[in-house]
Amino acid sequence: MQRILLAEDEEVLRMLVVDTLEDEGYLIDEACDGEEAYELIRKNDYDLILLDYMMPVYTGLELIEMIRKDQIQTKIMMLSAKSQTSDQQKVLEAGADFFMSKPFSPIQLVERIEEILGEAE
């Protein structure tokens, strides 16, 4: 079973994504801020990390930089309403592998994750 970390501070969105991905058979760990996400990343191995851009303690961007500095090679997808080309470029330059603009449909997210994790196999 593939394991995904979702770091999202908006509880309703986090619950929707978790429910959707669990229904698809993924094992999901949740974090509501950047600090909690970083602790989980240092303790566990993930197939994919989903990060919100704007979170308390550490932003998604700061978290990506910390993860890559620690030489953690897990694929990362940023989920963000900050969808300007310049924002997307910052995220990718920091070390994210993928970017998905909010709002998104649960179906879009599942399709993108299947595509990403299918590439990893």
TrEMBL record:
Source organism per UniProt: Metabacillus halosaccharovorans
Keyword terms, alphabetized: Phosphoprotein
SMART domains membership: REC
Protein name (database record): Response regulator
Keyword Phosphoprotein: yes
InterPro entries membership: Bact_response_regulator, CheY-like_superfamily, Sig_transdc_resp-reg_receiver
Annotated Response regulatory domain residues: 3-117
SUPFAM superfamilies per UniProt: CheY-like
PROSITE patterns named among the record's database cross-references: RESPONSE_REGULATORY
